[in-house]
Amino acid sequence: MNKSEKLFAEALKIIPGGVNSPVRAFKSVSGTPPFIVSAKGCLLTDADGNEYIDYIGSWGPMILGHAHERVTESLIAAVRKGVSFGAPSPAEVELAAEIIKRVPSVEKVRMVNSGTEATMSAIRLARAATRRDIIVKFAGGYHGHADSFLIQAGSGAVTLGIPNSPGVTEGVAKDTRVSGYNDLEAIKTIFAREGQRIAAVIVEPVAGNMGTVPPTDGFLPGLRALCDEYESLLIFDEVMTGFRVAKGGAQELFNIKPDLTTFGKVIGGGLPVGAYGGRNELMSMIAPEGPVYQAGTLSGNPLAMAAGLATLRLLDSAVYEKLEKSSKSLQDGLTKQAESAGIPISAQRIGSMITVFFSQKPVANLADASAADHKRFGKFFTFMLENGVHLPPSGYEAWFVSTAHDETVIGNTIDIAGRAFESLA
Ligand SMILES: *Cc1c(COP(=O)(O)O)cnc(C)c1O
User: What is the CATH number of domain 69-314?
Assistant: First the structure.
């Protein structure tokens, strides 16, 4: 056994599944996870001294690469001034202002500690504002692990909520509806039936948690129109896409104004942060300004604010242009290599989110994503890992490109992938 394997064996005894978040386990691929001891730029180093080109990017936050000099310096400076006050601090105002400057639909914002807290709080607010109970989500959409969201489609795309985690009560599940991603007709049917009871529709404007699945033309505008018609709120869950796919998130890219937006990942620069925001009139309902209760001992933590601010301030238009260029060359290179090896893939991408589906046709929803060849992905993943490229260990995930992935690194990744595709043929 190497050091990572020993650590994993030890972890299995004292941590459920050996990991603190299920996505880190190698459940859908073979082997056990390398334990990472350090990271710099686009490279991870494990406990045995192996180096990997990283496409996990801490599942989204590390858009500038790991241990970026400016972010690290801001953090060190913040640590020296004390790590938590439990009283307001200036950086909270600065980060809020930075978010509002970039995202026109957000006039007021509340910091929390994770994406899960952000979405959980946003639906509470939506229900309070509309005095309605029902929320609609999409199959394959992930919005954190709060009870209301751990519900998938049963039979057919449109169905009453059936909990798919034990511990979620029927009482909670009955207020969630699940529709099909990129399927406007399905959600129109739901609204026709009970639109007057729907508080909000929550959607990943670019789906990232069933692999990268862009919205089809008309899907997001269709949701906006439907919510307007029935006076329901449209919530964009931009925990993954916020400040990742564009300077102002997916709502800038697709030019749609949601009523509420949730953030996480990039806004914390790698520290635990989430946030939710929207129009002043809605956000004013949050305590202590209004009656909707939501709180957090460590919310707006000075270290998290410092890392988030340092990160956002570096994310100018030039960064997104650079990411677009390098990510496109990765997408094109992977597509070419797969073609020449005779392996059918769909390499799907928006900005620096990318997924290779082993699928003959483009993936537009959860059913398509499930129909991809996940066994084949497992083999591909193992080949890549053994050759120094760490992809997310599941075929249902987005890979993240950072500014630290330069032309050479992208070129090397494409070469290794070429050999991986050939090994599958
Ligand atoms: C990651 C993610 C979440 C949950 O965020 P956590 O910080 O893991 O709680 C919610 N929504 C989306 C779209 C995400 O990608």
Answer: 3.40.640.10
State which fold the 3-63+316-424 domain adopts: Aspartate Aminotransferase, domain 1 (3.90.1150)
- Whether 101 is catalytic: no
- The Cα–Cα gap between 347 and 156 comes to 27
Q: Domain map of the chain by residue range? A: 3-63+316-424, 69-314
Share of the chain above pLDDT 90, in %: 92
- Cis (ω within 30 of 0) for the bond into 393? no
Query: How does residue 157 score in pLDDT terms, banded at 50, 70 and 90?
Result: very low
Q: Sign of the CA dihedral 299, 304, 308, 309?
A: positive
Among this protein's residues, is 48 annotated catalytic? no
> What's the confidence (pLDDT) of residue 178?
93
Cα-to-centroid distance, 142 and ligand 1 (Å): 7
How far away, in angstroms, is 60 Cα from ligand 1 center?
9
pLDDT value for 81: 98
Q: How far apart are CA 371 and CA 361, in angstroms?
A: 10
Cα dist from 347 to 242, 331, 415, whole Å: 21, 6, 16
pLDDT exceeds cutoff 60 at 159: no
Q: Which residues pair with 150 in a beta bridge?
A: none
Is residue 72 pLDDT above 50, yes or no? yes
